[in-house]
Amino acid sequence: MTTLYGIGVGPGEAELLTVKAARLLERVPVVAYPAPLRGDGMARTIAGPFIPAGKIEIAIRMGFTADRAGADEAYDQGAAAIAGHLEAGRDVAVLCEGDPLLFGSFIYLLQRLSGRFAIEVVPGVASPLAAAAAAQLPLAAWDEAVALIPATKSEADLERLLEVADRAVVMKAGPHLDKLRRVLGRLGRNATLVERVGFSDQRMLPLAEAGAAGYFSLVLVHGKGKL
Predict the structure, then answer these.
(1) Which of 149, 154, 208, 213 is the most exposed place for a label (fewest CB within 10 A)?
(2) What is the CATH number of the domain that holds 14?
């Protein structure tokens, strides 16, 4: 039976791919991945050292903007192309930055193809884990509650969620740093910005000292205690 594999490739450093992910990329004949309108995209770049020459590749191209209709169309087309290979008896691996099911692009292909084909999800190192390791900040200890929050939430929602969490990771933080600083200032919480974790240009500094940051950045909100 042919299988669709959703493969997490981690946040940036190729060596963070799992052994299972590397083994599957060696074996499967077809590799698909989200990509910008031009170029390979981050997931393909990360996994590149583990993709042998000669694979059939499907670049699911989209503008990566707030245009949900455009993204839906791209995923529809990508799912159709992937389905064609699966129906022809070829296994397909879909690359996904971080982990496939944590804000992962694979979720939208899973929604379209689940129930039609055998599917296996291969977990990847998610950016919150890599960022915590780089900063040497615990994500949770003992009975602490940790929140995983998209920075796109309203300021009121951010404050409500952060107020009750012992620690937190705020994702997609780049365009929302001023809003986060206001909320964390009112709550008296310290935080660390981590940008492009795992890449050669990784940046890490206290949120209070950070200026602008790109899309691939997150904020680690420190514990209410010492760390």
Answers:
(1) 154
(2) 3.40.1010.10
